[in-house]
Amino acid sequence: MAETVDMGKLLDEIIYLLAPPADFTIEIKSQMPISTAQKLALNQVFYHLISHAIKHHSHNYGYINIWASDKEKFY
Question: Which listed site, 8, 11, 44, 52, has its alpha carbon 20 to 30 Å from 37?
């Protein structure tokens, strides 16, 4: 079921739950959109993408840069 989702808040919740190591930086670079979406499905996608990036980074430190760009009909 589609609902209004604050993407920034959703990402903050996911990052909090994943509790990345201290040497791993996750930066949200832009104002994230508020949109209509299936929140559970979107949560799963973001959760898996971020958790896999944390798990499979190959350096002593890690960095994820998240941003959104408004393309009129999609982000």
Answer: 52
